[in-house]
Amino acid sequence: MSDSDLARAASLAHLRGASAAKGDSVAPPLQLTSMFHLPGDPAGVRQYGRADNATVEELERALSHLEDAPALAFPSGMAAITAVLASTLLAGDRLLVPADGYYAARELCGWFASRFGIEVDYRPTRSFEQGGFDGYRVVLVESPSNPGLDVCDLRAVAAGAHASGGLLVADNTLMTPFGQRPLELGADVVVASDTKAPNGHSDVVLGHVATRDGELWETLRRWRKLSGSIAGPFEAWLALRGLATLELRFARMCESAAVIAPRLVASSTVKSVRFPGLPTDPSHALASRQMRRFGFVISMTLDSAGAAERFIERCSLLEPATSFGGVHSTAERRARWGDAVDPGFVRLSIGCEPTEELWTALSAALA
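Structure (tokenized):
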């Protein structure tokens, strides 16, 4: 990580203390309320739980610190994406979406477009720049893509979108601010599911948006207030606990993935492996230029759907689950959700288990 990333990680746990008054709690309190004491003129104070909550504001302060940009919390990553689309697109606009990105985002864009008169196009992440960006109001990218782990040149895509008068929205869920910084590469907006590594304990559904565009941020904040797409204070409080150890967990996960990926390549039972950190990976050169780390997700393909299911079932240190980024390693066969992947394709999320113990369990299941 860069010196600025290390400084950001070091100061994250001290944000509250820097402005605390004598006698304040060191840990942020959980404020569960829908109403506030509000006599007289309500201006300038918290008014109602749909718009104001001190715990959610503490989380947003931490997220803004990590992103180095104003952030807004949402009840899920998909709610964050929905807020951006609803705040930036009008009937007659065009939207460009990765054809190999997260399936729920693709489905949302298609449904949203058909209902509201928005034209949506799809392109593979690996060739995302081909065809240019003329006429697109919003360009949504996911790099690396989920689950295939292809990478696009964020700086080049941002330049192309801006030259055509469009906005670049980058989904950074796989990488977190410690692995990749899309705003510094030219993106206008970052969206992420904090359900994954930021919270890291598989007990919260949450998301956020970050942008340095003040007008867009105000639009997003107003949309959230009026639509009611609000993060719950308990979820925000749990996510704050998770964020305190994000840098530590993320480093362990990425380091373990970097050890395990080449071993999977060498395994006779694995047909193929995708991981940006492999020197032989098609995305390696570009990933090396724009990513701080190579991430903790590995895509691997086994001989068949049955082989993939047996591997997941037999591994004592894998949870069969449809999410990633937790302290425990998880795996799933993505074809069961309709992704355009081989039947034996497995998305493997490396957790915080000791690296060699995890590899022993993985290799035993593969054998």
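The mean pLDDT is 95. The domain at 246-366 is CATH 3.90.1150.10 (Aspartate Aminotransferase, domain 1).
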